[in-house]
């Protein structure tokens, strides 16, 4: 009786695992069985990287406003967290290029950021 229970449990486990693998493979291959294919409603023609960094000081409100005034479709910016989890808009995670100070944004408290 104990051998039958063990064999029954192993068969149950094997069939469950097999079903999971087959279902996962099928849904990976054919995801539209569960979800409708998404239609792209927004077609972007122009993205201003860092607000159009070549024309203004990058990642500033002036740069973003200039890009919008020129008719850009999308603004792109990069964000990083300071040590005290404040959001800073900066292309680089390190401030060397923009401020001359070689420090990672994630290693500095917001109040200690260089100007």
Compact description:
This protein is an alpha+beta fold and 115 residues long. It has helices spanning 2-29, 61-70, 96-99, and strands at residues 47-49, 74-76, 79-81, 87-89. The N and C termini lie far apart (77 Å).
Description:
- With 115 residues, the chain is an alpha+beta fold.
- Helices cover 37% and strands 10% of the residues.
- The chain is built from 3 helices and 4 strands.
- The strands form 2 sheets. Strands 1-2 form a two-stranded parallel sheet. Strands 3-4 form a two-stranded antiparallel sheet.
* Rounded Rg: 27 Å
Helical coverage, percent range: 25-40%
Mean pLDDT: 87
Encode the helix/strand succession as letters.
HEHEEEH
Oligomerization: single chain
Shape: elongated
Secondary structural class? alpha+beta
According to DSSP, the number of beta strands is 4
The biggest beta sheet is recorded as: 2 strands, parallel
Q: Which strand order does the major sheet show?
A: 1-2
């Amino acid at each position: 009786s104990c051998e039958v229970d063990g064999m029954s449990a192993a068969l149950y486990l094997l069939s469950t695992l097999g079903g999971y693998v087959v279902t996962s493979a099928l849904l990976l291959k054919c995801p539209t069985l569960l979800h409708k294919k998404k239609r792209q409603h927004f077609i972007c023609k122009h993205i201003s990287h860092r607000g159009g960094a070549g024309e203004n000081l990058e990642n500033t409100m002036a740069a973003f406003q200039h890009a919008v005034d020129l008719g850009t479709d999308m603004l792109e910016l990069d964000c990083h967290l300071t040590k005290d989890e404040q959001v800073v808009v900066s292309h680089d995670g390190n401030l060397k290029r923009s401020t001359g100070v070689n420090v990672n944004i994630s290693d500095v408290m917001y109040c200690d950021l260089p100007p």
